[in-house]
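To fix ideas, we give here one paired sequence and structure record:
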Amino acid sequence: MTVTLVLPDYMAAELLETVAGDTESACVLSARHVHTSRGNLRLFARELHWVPEDAYRVREANEMSILSHGYVPALAAAHADKAVPIWLHTHPGHESTPAPSKRDELVDEELSDLFRLRSGSPFYGALILAQPEGGLCFSGHIESDDWRGDIDRLWITGRRFALFRNWFHDRRPLSNQFERNIRAFGDEIQDVLGDLRVAVVGCGGTGSAVIEQLVRLGIRHLDLFDPDTLSQANVTRVFGSFPLDVGRPKVDVISAHVSRIAPSADVTTTQTKVTREATARMLLDADVIFGCTDDNAGRLVLSRIASYLLTPVIDCGVLLSSGAGGELLGIDGRVTVLAPGAACLVCRDRIDLQRAAAEMLTAHEYRRRADEGYAPALPDPDPAVVAYTTQVAAAAVGELLERLIHYGPEPAPTEVLLRTHERELSTNDQEPREGHYCHPRTQKLGLGVTEPFLEQTWQQ
């Protein structure tokens, strides 16, 4: 089992500021938990409940003692939110480490039963943060009545991404094949790329180009989703496909191609739509999702996942406009980064909600409503050309790299628009609409698994 704690970047910034202080600090971090289909555990951070100043009996650079009113109210809040309470404290100083002291271990023993009893959670967690030589590091564990394991990974998402592994975990050696990558952005980023689990929803022209670049960058854990089989028209755009592949599931064609590039890659394939609840739940393990689907209903699901599961979604769109005589009039591309605190695709008016509702209907129900004039006509496939789908795919993969490396402007924009016919590229940003699920004040961020899943209706 791998345990991952997912933090939105604004919460991580608060923690980084605190760990840089001169004295130890503590808080209760509440997090929703979910067991994934792979048997992993993911924790979605919800709130930081800092110990108030008057609750510290002792507070120094290497020691602290806290009265019970410093954490008991936080346990009541965790209970109300059905959250796991994680006792978090810092080890300040550039020579410190996150290794627990004997005193830390005794405190854990004292708090474990109390935290679980007062919060109603089956789990108790402990986390220590330190910043030796200016770099964040952590150690931590989570336990229940009959199990205890490390918190293996700390995954920070938002406008910037960062992945940290438990202080006590060994670092794996990097392959020499990535030497040129490492020259560009260093071995730490290359190591992160090899650890991330990336899902790609849609394996057509844009999706296959994204996958091609990801695997050559060093991504080694891929989940591929697409309901369709390869058509003759797809061969002109789908990377790794050949005429003999026509009729095969797209996910199988791409998976075979990935295996030829990286035989050791861990690749799973699912030949169904992400608009089915069982399929959407398979995205619980993903650290990053690339949305390369051209249906509005699928985008609606991914947009919710970015908020409820704190999972960044890099959504791609390509639109070629043609005149009546077949002449090419416009070549437009879009890459939107959906992450905690940013506007979703609905707030940005990037989803046709009427079409999304029609796409969620069963084939029988759609025909019935269309016959009665209650369902919009679904359009024919849009024009597509490999040069432009690949261009947008490259921009999308570039957004992943930029958010890991942090080479771009601050704050990082959340959308890139490519107007290839005008040789123009622009960026923009947009705040969530007040009251919408992606707005932090609605308390949906990191809500995790709900009933119904993602608080939406699903195809039967």
About this structure: The mean pLDDT is 92. DSSP finds twelve helices and 19 strands in the chain.
